[in-house]
Structures are given as C-alpha cells and as structure tokens.
Amino acid sequence: MATFFGAIADDFTGATDLAGLLARSGVPVSLRMGVPTEPPRDTAPLEIIALKCRTSPVDEAIQETQAALQWLKDAGAQRFFWKYCSTFDSTVKGNIGPVAEALMGSLGASQTIYCPAFPENGRAIFMGNLFVGEQPLSESPMKDHPLTPMRDSNLTRLLAPQTTKPVGLANRLVVAKGAASLAEQLSQLASEGVAHVIVDAVANDDLYIIAEACQDMVLLTGGSAVAMPLPELWAKQGRIERSPASTSSSFDPGPAIVLSGSCSAMTNRQVADFLAKGGPSFKLDPLEVAELGSARVLNWLAAQDASATPLIYATAAPDAVRAAQEKLGVERAGSLIESTLAACAEEARNVGYRRFVVAGGETSGSVAKALGVTRLDIGAEIAPGVPWCFATSENSRIAITLKSGNFGNEQFFSKALEVLDR
Ligand SMILES: Nc1ncnc2c1ncn2[C@@H]1O[C@H](COP(=O)(O)OP(=O)(O)O)[C@@H](O)[C@H]1O
Ligand SMILES: O=C(O)[C@@H](O)C(=O)COP(=O)(O)O
Predict the structure, then answer these.
(1) Average pLDDT over all residues of the chain
(2) What is the DSSP letter of 365?
(3) Is the predicted pLDDT of residue 122 greater than 80, yes or no?
C-alpha cells in the first residue's frame, strides 16, 4: 500500500508508542527499527522508522534522520513527523531543534510545530510550559533522568538555543478557539518569520484541533499524541484506508523475561512491585559490571528453569545512579548497563525465551538491536503508548514490548504478561 505518512522517532520506545497510538485508527502501521538497508517494499500507509539518536552527537542525529527521511520519501510519504519524548528529553546540546531544522530544509518547510503533550499520560503544555501530572517538568522526576535531566519546564527556552530561526508560541487560549484560530495564529507567526512554534495542549480535544489546523503542514513534530488524530482525518478524506487485519500477532511458544534499564520513578515502582511478587531476580551493579563484565548475570540466567519469569534490572534510585555516574562517567555507566541487558536478551532468546518485556528507551534500543529485530508488527496496547509488538529474531517469532520509562502503572510487568495470555 502506498505510504502517505512517514515518521522518524528518536528512540525505540517512542516509536512503539507512536505506532500504538496510530494503530488505534485501524489504518495499517509499519514500524522499522533503524533505516532499512533495502529500498521500500511491502510498505504501509503509515510508516515509522525508529532510531536511537536522542542522545547522539547532533551531526550524527542529523545524518541518520536525513537517511530515514530519504527512505520515507522513496516510500512515497507526503506528510512527515519527527517524534521525540513527551517530556522533551534532550541533552544540553539537544537534537530536537537541529534535526527539525534539517528536516525542514530538506522538505522545503518554512514552519513547523512542537507539541509533546500526551494528556492520557499526564503531559500537558500551558503557556509554553510542560507539565508532568501537576508538576512542572523541571520539578518532576525527569529532573533526575540519568542521560537527559530536564532542569527547565519552558519549551521556548529549551528549544530556542537549539535552532537558528525564531521560536514562538500558539497558546491554549488560541487553540481553545478552534482550528481556524490556530491556523490564523500560525500564519501570523509565519509572516513575522517564526519558523518554530510551540503549541499548547492540555486535553485530547486540543490535539484534535491542532491536527485539523496542521494536517497539511509537510512536517509536524511532537510526542505521539498529537499525531494520533491524523489517520482518522486522512481516512475521511480518502487519502489512506483502514485495514484492521493487517498485522500478525503470532509468536512462538516460550518463557517470558523482564529486562529493565530505566531508572524513572515509575519504573522503580514497577520493579518494586514485581520483586514483591517473589519471582527470580538479578540486580545489576554498574560498578561490578565495569570491573568483572557480564559473566555473573549470564551464568545466573542460564541457571534459571524458566518456570517463573526472571527479572534482570539495573533500575535504581537517583542517588545510586549519581554515585555510579560519578565513578564511571554518565555515558560509560549507561552503555555498560545497556550492553549487559542487550547480552542478556540475546542469551535469553538463544535458550528459548520468546516473550520480552523491556523497560527504558535507550535500553530498548540496545535490546532490539541485539535481538536483530528489524521490523515490528503492532498488537494490543498494555497501557497508553505501550503496545505488545511481534517480530522475527533469528529464526523465531517473538513477542516484545518496549516500555517508555515513565509509562504504565505499578503492575505493568505482570499486566503485560496477562494481556499477552488473553
Ligand atoms: N544503576 C544505574 N546507574 C547508572 N546508569 C544506569 C543505571 N541503570 C540504568 N542506567 C542507564 O540509564 C539510562 C536509562 O535510560 P533509558 O533506558 O532511556 O530509560 P528511560 O526510558 O527511563 O529514559 C540507560 O542508558 C541505562 O543504561
Ligand atoms: O513520548 C514519550 O514519552 C515516549 O514515547 C518516549 O519517547 C519514551 O522515551 P523513554 O522515556 O526514554 O523510554
């Protein structure tokens, strides 16, 4: 089927989040992990390419996103989306603005919007400030993120240093008046030379207004939720079609494993909940891994009889993360844990595990790469923004869910396995 919408996600959990929300429309969604090496074939109306570039150096992120853009253009896409985190995660140098500007350049777009709001998960933007539940972003647990600590809540202030062209705001009062009012504000800002517009949204209704006003912009940027209403609009106009039975949710029988590298407040609670249920678990210590490698956890995994679901985790409280980072450096601590969890995933697959619950965006990127997963079919959502996915890994079909650090409720790990068994 010809592709109409092409999205590029800056991490793997973000990509499955977007895929899950778009799939609610019943229009086929295809998710590729990394830029495909082959030219487009067997494409869907909604194509997503997942990258792992949230914390990469800016020039690498631009290079990768440009390659993804070219593939999506070759697939026939006419509208494009740059998906980043609903908590606007970026390093101090930041990739969100530079990548958006480069995509705009390649697409000949003079303006785009930025809307990371995700009301179902408590992310709202008001007067340009991002809230997580009732807390401003910089007072939320995101202030302690291991790789992208968010110390400002104002999106205009966060984005402006990342772009060369002016940044402006279309606030909630404008959005609440409807699509025509928002479209007028955007063209007013365009006439003043504002290329990058933060758009407020606090509720799903706002997202429908934004989608209606912006559906013909060649490039949109944001969290998954602002893209959610688009397929419905385009389906009504006959640009794309629904086809509910388009994905395969089959996987080979085999035991389940939980791998957690996220240190978010919610993942800490999810790990505690799963530990309290008494299953086998192994806590990774970054300092031990730095000194002795991954042999101990791999031996532990090999000794499991798989009758109960094992949990391997590095999830830790902010002070423990800081202590490890002070000794090892932020990048090294992160990459040691990521590569250890990736090795555990590969070993688990090799010894017959077929159901994988993975927590953490960067972690998911490393695990999915280690499993050699190149394409995911999207299944049922376990929680808003976290679907089960199905993929081929080596010669097996596996079920895998990639959970954003912040998503899901406390019982997420057990719930994920229950949803799959239904
Ligand atoms: N105990 C720890 N000490 C230091 N870094 C850690 C620890 N546990 C995990 N990490 C690293 O923290 C990062 C968490 O990021 P990520 O997987 O994207 O989670 P999230 O989805 O919560 O953002 C990863 O790079 C991971 O390897
Ligand atoms: O938009 C979101 O919050 C998620 O889709 C997302 O990007 C997740 O990233 P991580 O929190 O790093 O898993």
Answers:
(1) 96
(2) H
(3) yes
| All domains of the chain in start order, with CATH | 5-241 (3.40.50.10840), 256-421 (3.40.980.20)
Q: How sure is the predictor about 229, in pLDDT bands with cuts at 50, 70 and 90? A: very high
Atom of ligand 1 nearest to the CA of 13: 21
Q: How far is the CA of 314 from the centre of ligand 1 (A)?
A: 7
User: Which secondary structure element, helix H or strand E, spans residue 56, and what is its range?
Assistant: none
- Do 251 and 399 form a contact (C-beta atoms < 8 A)? yes
CA of 338 to the centre of ligand 1 (A): 8
Residue 176 burial (CB < 10 Å; 0-12/13-18/19+)? middle
Residues framing ligand 2 (Cβ under 6 A): 11, 13-14, 17, 85-87, 223-224, 360-361, 385, 404-406
Ligand 1 atom nearest to CA at 54: 18
The CA 246 to ligand 2 mean position distance, Å, reads 26
Report residue 91's pLDDT band, with 50, 70 and 90 as the boundaries: confident
pLDDT of residue 421: 81
- For this complex, say whether ipTM is above 0.85: yes
Encoded tokens for 138: 């910089």
